[in-house]
Design goal:
The protein has ten helices and two strands. By secondary structure, it is an all-alpha fold. About 20% of the residues are buried.
Amino acid sequence: MPLQSGAMTVAEHLTELRKRIIYVLVVFVIGLAGGLFCAKPVYEYLIEADTAQSFVLHAFSFWDGIGMYMKIAMAVSLVVTLPFIVYQLWAFVSPGLRPVERSAALRYVPYALLLFVLGLLFAYYIVFPMALSFTVSVTRDMGLEETYGIAQYFNFMFSLVLPMALLFELPLIVMFLTRLRILNPLRLRKVRRYAYFTLVFVAVVITPPDFISDFLVTIPLLVLYEFSVFLSAFIYRKQLAADAALEARYTAGDHA
């Protein structure tokens, strides 16, 4: 049987996906190059913070300084690239969407950056200082001599801040999938216990091995999930109202 006009084969879908991924990688590399220029002022800002000033940080490897600059550059590049990633995802799925769904989903792109930045700020200014304070207090209570490396300090920071910032995209993902009618609040409430378990597991994996860090990350994730359910319910009610109005128009047309 011939393919329907406008339909894409699996091979064509894979080719399109590969093209989108290459676009993202190119933008990420460009952002990485730009991030290297921003690395020094960002490093100076981070190292002058009160949390960093509490320690004498050491370099234990010739690569520690370069490694810190590269990590900062990658973080900057991720901030720049994230909206582009969301746009490429929209461009990949948009041919299968209705015009109203396509325009609605496109409006989510700027919010990807906003949520990511909010996640960064929340993790850096709230979660990171509390987790650092707890781990240091335990070390001091044990009577251990503190000798911290610059790499350990920034690895600890990035292991908390970046995953937390990415997880702040959860409401946006849920809204997008609700628009596509893949998710709805009924399904989200039905799988709530499994979602909670998954989020707790993610929090334990991405945080340093202490209870306070796990707790500080788990609670915001659970709040984000409930907020996502609320947003999904809001969109779902609008979809039901639109479907009812469309059915009413068709019914009225049949009786005319």
